[in-house]
Amino acid sequence: MKQTTCILALACWLSAWPVFAGISLSATRLVVEAGKRDTSLTVKNTGTEPFLAQSWLQADEFDDAGTVNELWVTPPVVRIDGGREALIRILPLDISRLPKDRESVFYLNVQQVPQANTAAENKMVLAIRQRIKVFFRPEGLTGEADKSVNNLLWIMSASDATKFELQVENPSVFSISFASTSLYAGDILLGKSPAFLLKPFERRTLTITRDPAHSGKAAERIHFDTINDFGVVHAHDLPIGSARPRG
């Protein structure tokens, strides 16, 4: 008997209830506040067969083996019958080790492990994983997360016939999630950058490939979409040379 187990990592960005192959989460991101006892997430089995849901946190988006000691996920494993839901909670554990002057970012994995059918030959058993961001927000931070986008600093550092280099700096204490960043000449799209996360006090250079059909046009404005604490996308426009966005 042959069985193949596949691990599929899904990036959950824009849907309020991301769904894939029988598993859905009630949020695309979580904010854990230092003053709260816990923060919860609902996991739903949208299929008909039961499965085990395994949950864990990691500090690095690209390092599954990283251990998180500052926050705790409970229960780490729970059985969910078809059509039913389970509640997963994240509790502060050793938050004294985290910075007190800015947000910290973690990643919550929720993995569906279906029951294997030992009677089936050559059956593929999928272990579906969804990953969302978890922001730990210490007490006493100044400002508001929704308004941190207004403090972004943008610089067009270089451009040529094939690409643009656009610097963006986040001077705030909050992380900012970008769904996309685009450059325009009037209404003509010159190039687009994929989604990324800009952490507090971070500066990043975006390399945006230029549409070869418009290699001779200069960029006149920046259009970017950000995602707030509730997973809602907000659009912003910024004329090149301006220091602050409008939107």
Defining key terms:
247 residues, mainly beta, Immunoglobulin-like, 2 domains, six-stranded mixed β-sheet, five-stranded antiparallel β-sheet, 53% strand, globular, disordered N terminus
Summarize the structure.
The chain is mostly beta strands and 247 residues long.
Give a structural overview.
The chain is built from no helices and 19 strands. By secondary structure, it is mainly β. It folds into two domains: 135 residues, Immunoglobulin-like; 95 residues, Immunoglobulins (Immunoglobulin-like, Sandwich). Strands 1, 4, 6, 8, 10 and 11 form a six-stranded mixed sheet that branches. A five-stranded antiparallel sheet has the order 2-3-5-9-7, with no helix packed on it. Strands 14, 15, 16, 18 and 19 form a five-stranded antiparallel sheet that branches. The chain is globular. The relative contact order is 0.17.
Please count the beta strands (DSSP E, at least 2 residues each).
19
Q: Unreliable stretches, pLDDT < 50, 5 or more residues?
A: 1-20
Q: How far apart, in Å, are the first and last alpha carbons? A: 58 Å
Report the C-alpha radius of gyration, rounded.
21 Å
What sequence of helices (H) and strands (E) makes up the elements?
EEEEEEEEEEEEEEEEEEE
Beta-strand residue fraction = over 45%
**What is the C-level CATH assignment of the largest domain?**
Mainly Beta
Supply the helix-strand structural class: mainly beta
